[in-house]
Amino acid sequence: MKSKWPLILTIIVVLAIVIAIIIRMSTHNSDPNAARQNEKEMVTDTQSKPHQGAKENKIVIVEYGDFKCPYCGAFERNIKPQLQKEFIDTQKVQFRYVNVLIHGEESELSAKAALAVNQIAPNQYWAFHKLLYQGQPSNKDDVTTKHWLTDNFIQQQLKKLDLSPKQLEKITSAYRDKNGEIAKKARNDNNLAKKYKVPQVPSLYINGEPIEDTTDFDTIKSKIDQVIKDQKS
């Protein structure tokens, strides 16, 4: 009868190699220097995105969102006004927005329209941003299942802005171009979400570090206050 020891030894060696690889990968992924570099890259990568608040980028909050996401709409209605009052309008933080194209054509169309406004009439961007979220159906399920975020809806919202006829014409032409500069910007936004493995929308990051609970203002405030305190010390 042949000894089973060679087979057992082979299994032990293979298991040891697998465990070593897992440990090495875990160590690499938890490398604080790598994490800090990743956080800095996010701040740099989002510099050209729509922003408001502080001119300096010492404390940067990045929201990843989708105009066709009901939870993003809830954030816009319930949390953003508090952030606006306490941290954005007081110039304590710079707030940026990145589009994530989760819900197909309507997500992309609204993202392109918003980015076109930001490029051609930047002072009207946040008003348009707010109008898109305000236009969400009141029923949460309808936000994602109903066909409401249409070109006609977007045109209605654009006409509520302080735009000249020429600006409206340029914005419309820009967001309707499926292969133009604005379409590329929308895809770039979505690629950033993939690059940083954004797990869901809405997602918030402060100086590249995720804020876990976007539904509780006190949690968000505590995180921001701590960053402000750390920068002063």
UniProtKB/TrEMBL annotation:
It holds the Pfam family Thioredoxin_4. Keywords: Disulfide bond, Isomerase, Membrane, Oxidoreductase, Redox-active center, Signal, Transmembrane, Transmembrane helix. The chain crosses the membrane at residues 7-26. Residues 30-50 are annotated as: Disordered. InterPro entries: Thioredoxin-like_fold (IPR012336), Thioredoxin-like_sf (IPR036249), Thioredoxin_domain (IPR013766). Coiled coil: none annotated. Residues 23-229 form the Thioredoxin domain. One of its GO terms (molecular function) is isomerase activity. Belongs to the thioredoxin family. DsbA subfamily. This is Protein-disulfide isomerase. It comes from Staphylococcus schleiferi. The gene is bdbD_1.
